[in-house]
Amino acid sequence: MYALYYNPGSASFAVHWMLNELQAPHRLIRVDFEAKQQKSAEYLQLNPSGKVPTLIVDGVRAASRMRGAAVVAVRTVPTALADAGDRIG
Ligand SMILES: N[C@@H](CCC(=O)N[C@@H](CS)C(=O)NCC(=O)O)C(=O)O
Question: How many domains, in total, are found in the chain?
Answer without folding.
Answer: 1
